[in-house]
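User: Design a sequence. Structure:
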């Protein structure tokens, strides 16, 4: 399919490097679990939580926050609906592909809450890659299935972008409230019961809602928030690493160092030694 440039899947357990790069086509990413932030050349950033998708336009230089990708379950697909012979082996004609290209360009660089059709398309592509790697099925049939799935993805992406704003606003409101509460209670390490009470929900209902909206458990989200606050303290104060660890509620400097390295790929000491941006 000429309009597909590349694609893939990574289940990232510990953060990995991602230096600045750009594509000559649209880059779509989807996070089913965890959190990832893309930083763009204009200084803006796109933050994805579990269940979020992002689109980055052609020739836009970008990289992972602090040049790493944090632990997550990440899918990506790079495509150009107007590539030469783009209608070949697809279900679309030129008019439909030009319409999709117009929708993608109008969207700009953004994140949005992926609907079930778009999320399912990414999961289908992952399953297809697994089946192909197993080598036990007819490659011709798998190729035909792959073309069908990619066409469904393209259509789902265009439709999802067309109705993304209400879902995104809801997600941002939920995350903003959770983030403010956690920042105000970093040292106390609030449990699910305290968080649920703050939002007027039962612990069970809160956990379900939180996972649905962020792709993370409350505990994982709290660890990330504490590490982000640690970065601010390392850059803006002269507090020692141990003092920062205790201020943010970590049991020890060693525990803090292990958690921080998981999310940012360097120890707190190593991170602090890096030149300030």
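Assistant: Done.
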């Amino acid at each position: 399919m000429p309009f597909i440039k590349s694609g893939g899947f990574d289940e990232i357990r510990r953060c990995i490097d991602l230096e600045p790069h750009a594509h000559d086509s649209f880059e779509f990413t989807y996070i089913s679990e965890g959190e990832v932030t893309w930083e763009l050349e204009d200084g803006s950033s796109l933050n994805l939580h579990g269940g979020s998708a992002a689109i980055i336009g052609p020739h836009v230089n970008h990289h992972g926050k602090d040049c790493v990708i944090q632990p997550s379950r990440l899918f990506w697909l790079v495509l150009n609906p107007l590539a030469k012979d783009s209608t070949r082996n697809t279900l679309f004609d030129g008019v439909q592909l030009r319409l999709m290209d117009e929708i993608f360009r109008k969207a700009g660089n953004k994140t949005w809450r992926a609907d079930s059709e778009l999320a399912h398309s990414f999961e289908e592509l992952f399953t297809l890659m697994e089946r192909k790697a197993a080598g036990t099925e007819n490659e011709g049939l798998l190729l035909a299935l792959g073309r069908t799935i990619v066409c469904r993805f393209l259509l789902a992406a265009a439709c999802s972008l067309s109705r993304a704003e209400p879902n995104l606003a809801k997600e941002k409101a939920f995350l903003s409230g959770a983030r403010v509460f956690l920042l105000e209670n970093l040292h106390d390490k609030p449990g699910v019961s305290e968080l649920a009470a703050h939002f007027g929900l039962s612990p069970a209902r809160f956990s379900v809602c939180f996972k649905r909206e962020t792709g993370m458990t409350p505990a994982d989200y709290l660890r990330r928030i504490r590490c982000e606050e640690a970065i601010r303290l390392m850059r803006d104060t002269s507090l020692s690493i141990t003092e920062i660890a205790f201020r943010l509620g970590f049991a020890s400097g060693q525990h803090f160092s292990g958690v921080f390295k998981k999310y940012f790929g360097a120890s707190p000491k190593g991170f602090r030694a890096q030149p300030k941006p």
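The chain has a mean pLDDT of 83. The longest helix spans residues 139-162.
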